[in-house]
Amino acid sequence: MSIEALLRPPDLIGESARMQHVRLLIHLYAPLRAPVLIHGETGTGKELVARALHEYSPRAALSFVAVNAAAICPALIDSELFGHERGSFTGAVRDHAGVFEQAGMGTLFVDELAELPLSAQARLLRALENGEVRRVGCVTSRRVTMRVIAATNANLHDGVRRGTFRADLYHRIAVLHVRTPALRDRVEDIPAIAEHLLLRLQDEHGKRSLTPKAIDALTGYAWPGNVRQLLNVIRRTCAVNTGKTISGEMIRAALADEPIRAAVRPVRRAVVMPTTDEITTALHAANGRLSGAARLLGMPRTTLREHLRRQRIPR
Fold first, then answer.
1. pLDDT at residue 10 in the model
2. In this predicted model, what pLDDT tens digit does every residue of 147-183 receive, in sequence order?
3. Is 64 part of a structural domain of the chain?
4. Could you tell me which of 169, 178, 196, 268 has the fewest CB atoms within 10 Å of its CB?
5. Do residue 194 and residue 136 come from a single domain?
6. What is the count of structural domains for the chain?
7. Which pTM does this prediction carry?
8. Residues 247, 200 share a domain
9. Looking at the domain assignment, is residue 190 inside a domain?
């Protein structure tokens, strides 16, 4: 499979090796029914990946329902997830279908998964294992057949060790993994992302273009808030400058207003080794060719060969 043949969700911008690998995983995982866990920093596009997994799946014509676990009032978690019957508690003036029922046979996306309290994690696990949910105040269960995709910016392994996240839920929901890369780890994608964001803002601010100095200023910043922060900076720059050209000075002025100072050129990090599953997936997609797999994984071919030898991973 060539890089050119991979699916290209319109909002997942970038041709870096890391983004090519994300698109490869979307292509491989979208047709499946197994749960997916998306991990990445805030602002790296986890929900975009979830929507792409849905839109390129056989469930694309069905519902995509997103819920942010961190935004649910603890007292209403059961109602939000599983629904309630009228009169089951004070204020329940009508029947309410929870997000599991709302998703139907489509996709349920649970963002900020690590924020669920342990009691809710137990009920979520039971729903995933049994394929059934019971509304608050109801004595019968309802079958659910949606696919579950979850996302987090937390380290769930640490959560399991600390006792704040259930190990059995982790193993039930983390069947397939996608890691969304930080913007500082794919600096080469910043110009294309910035141009894409300017197009999105064109109806509001008119057509704008970036000078080479503006691109230098954007690529010289470490972006702790990732793409979401990049959008804010570009939007602020467009709001306070009326010309059609965005200069490096304009970008630097917008960055000076950022509460988190990180205006240093990102340091190229050492290669972070992918998991054995990711390596096996990349080798399969590259038809066993080491150079193709290394390109998909964003790492030198010699490093990949040495890792295969040490870990005794078959090709």
1. 67
2. 999 999 999 999 999 999 999 999 999 999 999 999 9
3. yes
4. 268
5. no
6. 3
7. 0.79
8. yes
9. yes
